[in-house]
């Protein structure tokens, strides 16, 4: 299957992308991983992207698109892929359509993870990270530490990252609504959007997504 995964910050896209890609035996292609790989390998695209990032500028769409094209042409993506973080806007979606048309292949589905805005704020703004080890993550509501402000694992101080503050989260949501959400309507016009709730246990969401994708594939046969 060839799938695009969309949803607001805090919808659990990263978690579900990894799980779904494994279940469907297709590569998980995330823009974050693409950028890190190209920059660390010092590819021409990576050097170009880094030059924009070092200057504090956004990486142009054409660079992101070129990275995605290169990754989708790798042998492990021959039978499908799951795109996470790309396309991020309508112009990228249009460019993806052109790329796929050139290869005479089509997307099977656009999986939209739906979550209420206040839940997004609660999920992200409630996160607390250990200063000693950032892999130790807690949540004031869903997975609180035994002692407030103290890491259960190593006793380090727990803190809220600047980009997890409520104000920043609401700004990120506004960017999502303005830039990324329009691609849902773009793909709805093609009959590709499958919307599921991203509320509940992680396993349940994964199962919900797999069942929705299975139905979509059966209906489009």
Automatic annotation (TrEMBL):
InterPro entries: Adenyl_kin_sub (IPR006259), Adenylat/UMP-CMP_kin (IPR000850), Adenylat_kinase_CS (IPR033690), Adenylate_kinase_lid-dom (IPR007862), P-loop_NTPase (IPR027417). Its EC number is 2.7.4.3. Its main location: cytoplasm. GO terms for molecular function: AMP kinase activity; ATP binding. Transmembrane segments: none annotated. It holds the Pfam family ADK. GO terms for cellular component: cytoplasm. AMP binds at residues 31, 36, 57-59, 85-88, 92, 161, 172. The keyword Cytoplasm applies. It catalyses: AMP + ATP = 2 ADP. Keywords: ATP-binding, Cytoplasm, Kinase, Nucleotide biosynthesis, Nucleotide-binding, Transferase. GO terms for biological process: AMP salvage. Residues 30-59 are annotated as: NMP. It is an enzyme of class 2 (transferase). ATP binds at residues 10-15, 127, 137-138, 200. Residues 127-163 form the Adenylate kinase active site lid domain. It is found in: Cytoplasm. Pathway: Purine metabolism; AMP biosynthesis via salvage pathway; AMP from ADP: step 1/1. NCBIfam families: adk, PRK00279.1-2, PRK00279.1-3, PRK14527.1. PANTHER family: NUCLEOTIDE KINASE. Consists of three domains, a large central CORE domain and two small peripheral domains, NMPbind and LID, which undergo movements during catalysis. The LID domain closes over the site of phosphoryl transfer upon ATP binding. Assembling and dissambling the active center during each catalytic cycle provides an effective means to prevent ATP hydrolysis. Monomer. Belongs to the adenylate kinase family. Catalyzes the reversible transfer of the terminal phosphate group between ATP and AMP. Plays an important role in cellular energy homeostasis and in adenine nucleotide metabolism. HAMAP family: Adenylate_kinase_Adk (MF_00235). This is Adenylate kinase. The gene is adk.
């Amino acid at each position: 299957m060839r799938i695009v995964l969309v949803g607001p910050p805090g919808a659990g896209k990263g978690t579900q992308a990894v799980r779904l890609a494994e279940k469907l035996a297709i590569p998980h292609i995330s823009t974050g991983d693409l950028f890190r790989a190209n920059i660390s390998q010092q590819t021409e695209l990576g050097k170009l992207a880094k030059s924009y990032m070092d200057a504090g500028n956004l990486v142009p769409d054409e660079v992101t698109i070129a990275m995605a094209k290169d990754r989708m042409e790798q042998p492990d993506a021959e039978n499908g892929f799951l795109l996470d973080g790309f396309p991020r806007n309508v112009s990228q979606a249009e460019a993806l359509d052109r790329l796929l048309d050139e290869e005479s292949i089509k997307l099977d589905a656009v999986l939209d993870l739906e979550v209420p805005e206040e839940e997004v704020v609660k999920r992200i703004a409630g996160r607390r990270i250990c200063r000693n080890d950032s892999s130790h993550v807690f949540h004031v509501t869903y997975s609180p530490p035994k002692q407030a402000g103290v890491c259960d694992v190593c006793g380090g101080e727990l803190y809220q990252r600047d980009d997890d503050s409520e104000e920043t989260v609401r700004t990120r949501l506004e960017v999502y609504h303005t830039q990324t959400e329009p691609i849902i309507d773009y793909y709805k016009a093609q009959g590709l959007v499958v919307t599921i709730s991203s509320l509940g246990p992680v396993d349940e969401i994964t199962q919900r997504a797999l069942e929705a994708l299975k139905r979509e594939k059966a209906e489009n046969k």
